[in-house]
Amino acid sequence: MATAPKPDDIHAAFKKDVNMTASELEKWLKTDESKSVGQDSGDGTSIGHHSGERIIDILHKKKADLTPDDEAHMHKVHSYVSRHSAQEPQHTADVETSRWRYSLMNWGHDPLKDKKK
C-alpha cells in the first residue's frame, strides 16, 4: 500500500504542475472553451472547472495557511495532471485547440507552456 506524500512533496508537485497564475486561470475559466470540456459534476459545471476555482483559492494562500483539504486537492490536481498529460494527442498540430489542452487548463496546467521552455 502506498503512503500519502508529505505536504512539502505535494506542495512542490502542485507548484510544478500548476503553471498558470491565478489571474490566467481565472480569465481562462470564464471562456466558452473552458466550459465546453470535462465531465459534468452534476450541477451543469464540469469537475475540472470546479477544480480550477479551487486552485485559484489555493494559489492565493500562503503555504503556512494551507489546510489538509487544500493538500488533498493539491494531490488530486497532481494526479490528474500527471495522468492526463500522458494522454497527449498523436497529432500535435491540433493541440492548441484540443479538448485535451482545454481540460488540462481547467486544472491549472497549460501544456503549451511546457513546450515553450
Automatic annotation (TrEMBL):
Q: Which InterPro entries match?
A: DUF3140 (IPR021487)
Highest taxon of the lineage? Bacteria
Query: Where is the segment annotated Disordered?
Result: 30-51
Q: Which PANTHER family match?
A: DNA-BINDING PROTEIN, POSSIBLE DNA-BINDING PROTEIN
Record protein name field: DUF3140 domain-containing protein
Source organism: Hymenobacter jeongseonensis
